[in-house]
Amino acid sequence: MNAGEILQYRYRDAVNGFFEFPTPNARDILPRGLQPVEPHHGSSILAVTAFEFEDSAVGAYREVVLSVVVAPRLLPGEPMPRSAMYPFMVGTTTAAARRHGIEVWKLPHLPADLEVEFDRHDSEVRVTAAEGGCPVLELTVCDPGLAWQPVEHRYQTWSQDGAGLYLSNLMMRGAFMESEEERGSLRLHPHAFAAGIELGEITDTPFREQWMRDGVESIHPLQPLPAFAER
Amino acid sequence: MAGQIEAEMEFFDYDYSSFYYSSSDDVFAILEPYTQWYDQAQVRGYALYAQPMSSRPATRVDLREKLGQGRLNLLNLSSYNYLGMSARPEVIAAAKRGLDQYGLGAAGSPVLSGTMDVHLELERELASFKDKPAVLLFPSGYSTNVGLLQGLMRPGDLILCDQNVHASIVDGAILSKADVRFFKHNRPDDLEKKFNARRGKKLVVIEGVYSMDGDVCRLPEIVEIAKAHDARIMIDEAHSTFIYGEHGRGVAEHFGLEDEIDIHVGTLSKAMGGQGGFVAGSTSLYKYLEGFARSRLFSCSLSPVVASGVLEAVRIARREPELRAKLWANVRHMRARLAEHQVDVGDSTSQIIPLMIRDDRRIFDIAHHMQRSGLYLQPIVYPAVAKHRSRFRISVSAAHTTGQLDEAVDILVRVLRTEGVL
Known about the structure:
The complex is a heterodimer of chains A (231) and B (422). Chain A is mostly beta strands and 231 residues long. Chain A has helices spanning 23-29, 95-105, and strands at 7-22, 43-55, 61-70, 83-92, 115-120, 124-131, 134-142, 149-161, 164-179, 185-188, 208-219, 223-225. Chain A has a seven-stranded mixed beta barrel. The model of chain A has no long low-confidence stretch (mean pLDDT 92). Chain B has two domains: 46-85 and 322-418, Aspartate Aminotransferase, domain 1, CATH 3.90.1150.10; 88-319, 3-Layer(aba) Sandwich (Aspartate Aminotransferase, domain 2), CATH 3.40.640.10. In chain B, 39% of the residues lie in helices and 14% in strands. A seven-stranded mixed sheet of chain B has the order 3-9-8-7-6-4-5, sandwiched between helices. Chain B is globular and about 60 Å long. At the A-B interface, strand 8 and strand 9 of A face helix 1, helix 5 and strand 5 of B.
């Protein structure tokens, strides 16, 4: 495996909640050149995502990710992404997954293994993450009874290193549910995982919840965009 | 790279917010991606928006299709003309007299040469109606909220808005450079949380009736919390003035809280069927906004033709309370008929009745079907409302006959059944 090929990750569950948090905080996190999407003036979007991967180039593992939702890169004639994310903190359950994420995708990782559990019920999934028994986060995403649709969605993800910014197209295939019924919840604990976030300023109810089951995440090779960071 | 990706562009995943930022230093770089989406959006349903009307916005309207050549005569449930004033013969006659007396436009800013006696007469009439010392007229509802908030609030102040307030309030708040925080829709507990022991100047902004859900502000609880935090209160009664309260003064009158509200905003484009907006309050507020509300200061005054027609409309609304009674009778009839068929109308209690579809993809097909069946009903989708909470927005008017409302219900129930919604 290397950064020049499309890599696939088969997952059982991928859940995501969109939470509002202050735009100045989002701008502190984002590199220059990326613009946060604001659902309301002054509020940006913290995306909290959890995956249970059943199979990948580095085996099975679980992962929690904090991202800022950013404006997508739109170019004439190119397919449009559903949305774009800047992941700024990833926590995984295995050292192999961590090394892989850093080396291949240049994503910042918590330098320790997390314990990530998925507690599934008919109408909700509750994800808990902890490090050595110390709580890191609890995320609940609910299914309000909407129809699940088979989809293949395109996203953009951004990452960076000393050389500049990188963009990757990411495809999510699987059964999909999305709602804005505000039934889920988030609790982020004071922990290095959430460093840089003003915890008291994040809404604890997601304005949008997404849940995908039994699908494949395909991540396309990174495209270096060094000039973008200079804007 | 792009060719390797198999998924097709999914129109429904995008909206105007996807095209806010471009990916280039060229100002025009965003135009082509937007145009690609726009052209597809028109074909997929957006052509239903802004179809040109060639008649009055009365209970039946003539429309021209945007994509085809067809001309349509439809039963209208989309216009704001809540009291049917836009086509009242007395209103039209008054506007014609205004045209004869003043000409087409004011030809000046209200602080220079654009104030005419009809503007002052309308302000006095509205102040008397609202039972307030003064009313300041603005050329539109949008410019009212923008000018009011920009004119009154300053950097370092705090504006706390319900998250469903109108864009004009959001834009005015941004322009003021005050700190802006949004509390969850109609949730006094979240308002309390958002105060967060903040010191300094604070303004709570709510609406009387919210335009997308048709629900009424929980004013008593919100007033109590705002007072406890020494905040001033502004209420925008765009959709409730002339409709709620014993005298039609709005939701604040309905709850007996008019004197607890510091700033009352209304529009003349909804129940009055005209154009313009106003701020009702103290004479000192009038004087201050006259000097500092730039959206008014640097706009041409409201057309004296419109002002003349609206003045007559206000007088009619005051002397004919039966119009309001007719509107509410129509609202009750419409609700009862919809309830017979278990149509989902959300949380509405007002003359704005959302017909919940909750399917962002299918709503445009259903809207086309409604139109082909003779009904003018606009689809409302994200980002105007939350994802998967798409709906049609029914505006009931006092001008509708019971027969027209029954005809409308028959059409929409038939379409919803055919489409599998009911």
